[in-house]
Structure formats: structure tokens, C-alpha cells
Amino acid sequence: MLIFRRHFASEMATMAITFAALCVGGCTLLFISGFIVREAYPVFFEDSNIFAFLISDPWAPFGNPPRFGIVHAWISTFIITFVSLLITVPLGLGIGLFLSEIAPLTVRTVLQPCLDMLAGIPSVVYGFFGYVTLVPLFENLFGMATGESLLVAAIVLSFMALPFIASTSAEAFRAVPDELREAAMAQGVTRWYMVRRVVVTSAMSGMFAAVALGFARAIGETLAVLMLAGNSIATPGSLLDRGQPLTALIATELGEAGLGSSKYHALFAAGLTLMCVIVLINALIWHWKGRFVRRDAHA
User: Fold this and answer.
1) 3-state secondary structure of 67
2) What global pTM score does this model have?
3) Staple 176 to which of 86, 153, 200, 202, CB 3.0 to 4.6 Å?
4) Residue (of 236, 293, 246) closest to 267 by Cα position
5) H or E element at residue 60
6) Cα–Cα distance between 254 and 141 in angstroms, integer?
């Protein structure tokens, strides 16, 4: 009886601690979201309108009257994020597949810690490396006055997101039961056919999770893109133009914004826009994941 009471008390204490942690995390998220919405409210519904803020107005805080449009920032954000994912998603999934299905044990034990090390390198180091290598290279290759551009930022950002996609996808591929591999090989199919039709199909949900993690890493990066994108408020027209993503805009301007000023509220509105974009795109990714999983379950 005494042992039962001790087990019961231990379980109740564990449940209470985990529930308290859940409440703290949830309340923190609600507080941050509510605070950002409150500070961004005047931009959307009092001082300006959504169309002017997102589409028509430029970022001109010293104009007469001052205007705080973020069209240049969200275009720069989408270009850098899309190009970086275009590079890193196939590369990361390929590395994950190589680690789980092809690489010998000795190669795997060396390569996996290297990926973990890449994930732990500070973003300022990535930014500095890109600044002293890619920026001069682009200056010479394309005859640019300065090599800072959206493409340079996207290339460096792709390598920053690479270890997250590669490690997560490798875990998803390794989680596929060996029985499925053996059953497929027993049918006389090639190893590549087995990987393509059994392993990749079964690990589809994990691959979507890897892409979502890489997307979050790419779109939320601040320091590296601030160093490499050029930090220009002009609306970019090509990959070789300079730009200023939303994260760089907030980091650059927030220190000079007076508390409660129009600029202050505009920067919070930019942060709210970034949050909404992240939530929307992640919702789309998980929706597509659910469709693939249901389709495979009925196949």
C-alpha cells in the first residue's frame, strides 16, 4: 500500500510539473502575441491602412509626411527565403537519404557530428564568412559596385538551414521499419526502387517536418542577412539587387524608434506580418503533409 501511494504521488507530481510547464509556455506565447498585436493595431486600423502599409507606401520615416510601408521588406524576405529553400531542401534531403541508406557506419559517425557542429555555428560567423568570400566574388564576377545582394544572403542562409533539414530528414528515413525494406527487397526490386517507393513514401511526414524546420530557420534569420543583403530600402527587382528583409528592418530601425511613435508601431506591425506569414506557410506545409499521409494510408 505504501509503495502504491509513493508511485501515485510521483505520477501526480510529474503531471503537475509538466502541466505547469505547458501553462507557462502557452501563457508566454499568448502574452507575446497579444503584445505584438496591441502595438501593431494603430498601423492597420488608425494611422494608416493595410494596403498602404503592405503594398503602396515606401519606407520613408523622414518624409513629409513620414510613411512606413514595408513592401520592400517582405519582397526581400520572400526572395531570400524562397531561393535559400530552393537550394537547401533538395541538398538537405539528399544528405539525409545518404546518411540513412547509403553511407557506411564510419562515414555516418563522422558526418553526423559535422552536421550538428554546423547547426551550432553562430549566425554572425556565417555572415562574416559570406562577407569575406562571396561578396568579393560577386563583385568580380558581375562587376557590381558591392557584392552585397539577395542572392549572396540566400546562398549563405541555405547553408545555415542545411543541417536542420539534413538531420531531421535522416532521422525520418531511419525511423522507417526495416521490415518494410526487407519485404520490398524480397520482391526482387532494385535498391533505388525500394528507397524511392518505400523509404521516401513512408518518411514523407518527417520530410515535411524537416522542410518546415528549415523554413523557420531561414525566414527568421536576422544577423547574417543584415550583413549580406545590403540593407537597402529600395524595392529589389532581381536577385543581384540589394534588399532589406523584415528581420533586418526591425533590427536596424527599432533602436531609433521612439516609444509609442508611428515608426515604433510600424515596426511591430512588420513583426506581426512576419508572424502571420510564418503561421500561414507552416499551416500549408502541415496541410500538405496530412494530405500525403492520408493518400499513402489509402494506397
Assistant:
1) strand
2) 0.86
3) 202
4) 246
5) strand 59-60
6) 35
